[in-house]
Amino acid sequence: MEPVRVTREQIDYYNRPGPRYTSYPTVPVWSTSFDERAYREALAAVAARPADPLSVYVHLPFCAERCAYCGCNATATKHDHVVDTYLDRVERELSIVAPLLGERRRVVQLHWGGGTPNFLNEAQARRLMGLLDAAFAIDREGEIALEMDPRIGSAEQAAFYRTLGFNRVSLGVQDINPQVQAAIGRIQPFEQTAALFAACRAEGFSSVNLDLVYGLPYQTEERFGHTLDAAIALRPDRLACFSYAHLPQARPNQKRVDASGLPTPYTKFALFQQAVQRFTAAGYDWIGMDHFALADDELSVAAREKRLHRNFMGYTTRPAPQLLGLGMSAIGDLGGCFVQTEAHLGRYEQALAAGQLPIVRGHRLSEDDRRRRAAITHLMCNLELPLSTALDAGDEAMVESIERVIAHADEGLVEVAGERIVVTDLGRYFLRNLCMELDAYLKHTADRPLFSKTI
Ligand code: SF4
Predict the structure, then answer these.
(1) Among the three residues 294, 326, 358, which one is the final residue of a domain in this structure?
(2) 116 lines ligand 1 (CB under 6 A)
(3) Domain-embedded: residue 82
(4) Residue pLDDT, tens place only, 291-350
């Protein structure tokens, strides 16, 4: 892909807080008055549609130690019994939720995220999968995925997770440079990553993927270039290249990050542009905002055919209409509502010990939310927006939003082609900014420190 020409003024202008739009409306908009009763109603709405397949996300928050840069809901522990107690609570949550959904619903997408899912020992992982198998009919031909930390991974683990039915795995890498790793509190020799990657390949995972992060301290184009080349050399099926958001006020662990080495916004832009160029030159398609997939990967095929979808677990070709979240801080998207469980481990466990579902916030989507959500998803996934999305609705506010997107044609971010707004190569770097024009809530929430930086 040819490099785009971008000015410092453009970078300055677009470098403002913005959501990643894994949901619309975004989490800060959701209300704490959405309670257990509202959640039970949403689950009942799912039960009334027994043919809908489910996606299930399980949040496993434990890690051997907390990385300084981490933006996840994670907690460090050295004790197996802490994990056992947590699994007791997840079992309790499942025992309440699963019957409300109906008899052993079919699951076509299962994702264990964290935290570090492979922090669980074999007995714990077997127990959790057993609980899920008892509650649901999990389609082993579906996407059964987990995230693994190579620092604690092994060939034995890779083999074990295959026996549980996992067929997809993402390995956290971030950056291979020792100085960068020291600055973010995550020492991970590349040999560890390469060894686990090879083991996962040997075990026959159908998709072995790597996660990188740009915008970390001491990353330069030259150093990050080595990380990109090392990642490409392993030939993962997919790569994610996430933007680091340094928000130490909202994430106190990030106070340990050596912020003096953070790249400027201009360098950060160059780092990502370099990733785009190297990955596309190596045979990967750029997917949506920050993902890359081999040209024959089903994600790339779906992107070319404009049938890509996006949910809290990322880009997917197989959207299930109902996403159930289990575990602390997990997010559900079901029955026309978004819902989030308690993100504090103690309160999550207390609520379940008392027989309550630990819901802290949620949102029932209005018609306007659905229309804007569809438009944002279309833009994020397919890099275009059919004008009919807005104009058929005859909704003045939506028409204004669309006009705001079209106004970016002057800067070369979009083009209007017939009945569609099409995102240009330059516009892809500012996709969030384009989506923000469609966000009816943003002006009310823009000052909240929950968003990560655009670049
Ligand atoms: S970055 Fe990953 S391994 Fe590190 S603390 Fe966060 S969740 Fe755990």
Answers:
(1) 326
(2) yes
(3) yes
(4) 999 999 999 999 999 889 888 888 888 777 899 999 999 999 999 999 999 999 999 999
Q: Is 153 in the pocket of ligand 1 (CB under 6 A)?
A: no
Ligand 1 centroid to residue 73 C-alpha, Å: 9
Pocket test for ligand 1, best of 77, 149, 174 (most atoms within 8 A of CB): 149
Is the pLDDT reported for residue 452 higher than 60?
A: no
Name the one residue in this structure whose structure tokens are 């996709």. Answer: 431
User: pLDDT category, 390, cuts 50, 70, 90?
Assistant: low
**Which ligand 1 atom is nearest residue 114's CA?**
7
How far is it, in rounded angstroms, from Cα 123 to Cα 314? Answer: 29
Q: What is the percent of the chain where pLDDT is above 90?
A: 85
Best substitution site from 59, 62, 65, 66 to test ligand 1's pocket, by max atoms within 8 Å of Cβ? Answer: 66
Q: Are residues 9 and 46 in the same domain?
A: no
d(CA 436, CA 455): 14
Whether residue 74 has its Cβ less than 6 Å from ligand 1: yes
Q: Give me the domain span that covers residue 439.
A: 1-17+366-446
- 67 and 200 together in one domain: yes
Kindly write down the DSSP assignment for every residue of 152-180, as one continuous string. T--HHHHHHHHHTT--EEEEEEE---HHH
pLDDT tens for each residue of 267-281 = 999 999 999 999 999
How many other C-beta atoms are found inside a 10 Å radius of the C-beta of residue 422? 15
pLDDT digits (tens, 9 = 90+) for 168-221: 999 999 999 999 999 999 999 999 999 999 999 999 999 999 999 999 999 999
The answer to whether the CB of 63 is under 6 A from ligand 1 is yes
Q: Which of 24-33, 241-250, 393-402, 412-421 has the lowest mean pLDDT?
A: 393-402
Has residue 275 been placed in a domain? Answer: yes
Separation of CA 427 and ligand 1 centre (Å): 31
Please state the domain count of the chain: 2
Same domain, 193 and 304: yes
Statement: the pTM of the whole predicted model exceeds 0.85 = yes
Which atom of ligand 1 lies nearest, measured to the CA of 149?
3
Please indicate whether residue 247, judged by its CB atom, sits closer than 6 Å to ligand 1: no
For the Cβ of 67 lying below 6 angstroms from any atom of ligand 1, the answer is: yes
Q: Based on C-alpha coordinates, what's the Rg of the chain?
A: 21
Tell me the CA distances in angstroms from 401 to 33, 260, 429, one per residue in order: 28, 39, 20
DSSP 254-295: GGGS-GGGPPPHHHHHHHHHHHHHHHHHTTEEEETTTEEEET
| Residue minimizing CA distance to atom 7 of ligand 1 | 115
**CATH code at position 421:** 1.10.10.920
